Amino acid sequence: MVLRPWRLGDAAAVLAAFTDPDIQRWHVRRADSLEEAVEWITDRQRGWAAESELNWAVAERQSDAVLGRMSLNSVDLHDGSAGLAYWMVPAARGRGICTQAARALCRWAFEEAGFHRIWLDHSTANHASCRVAVKAGFIAEGVARSSALHADGWHDMHVHARLATDVS
């Protein structure tokens, strides 16, 4: 597994990922055409340029096939904080890849980029995401009630965080 920048050539993989029912269930943003997938990648690249959203493709080391996404959103460089978001394609799930990628990203964020706090939230109904958070060393901080609108209505969200001072 490697974390690398998104490339326009990843558009077909992004489009395929966004057709997955689990990704559609838990992530509001979609791409319904190759053009929209290219736009999604371009938006991720703009986020890097603005230092507001730092995105990586999670890729297979040998084949370079896209396995998922890791992102630091809501980046606040002054306070050294950001929100972690992720998804994995079906073939990459249940193999520990998401946890491994989250740990690697946090290691970079804390040791190289100087972040102090990385937080994440997920629907209380998204048990797989909760497992990733816990296995990646995130501490549960509480529940934000009815704080995210999904296709099936409002969801309570578990909030987790890691600090640079936490033992990894």
Automatic annotation (TrEMBL):
CDD domains: NAT_SF. One of its GO terms (molecular function) is protein N-terminal-serine acetyltransferase activity. Residues 1-166 form the N-acetyltransferase domain. This is Acetyltransferase. It comes from Mycolicibacterium anyangense. Keywords: Transferase. The lineage of its organism: Bacteria, Bacillati, Actinomycetota, Actinomycetes, Mycobacteriales. It comes from the Bacteria. PANTHER family: ACETYLTRANSFERASE (PTHR43441:SF10), RIBOSOMAL-PROTEIN-SERINE ACETYLTRANSFERASE (PTHR43441). Gene3D superfamilies: 3.40.630.30. GO terms for cellular component: cytoplasm. InterPro entries: Acyl_CoA_acyltransferase, GNAT_dom, Ribosomal_N-acetyltransferase.
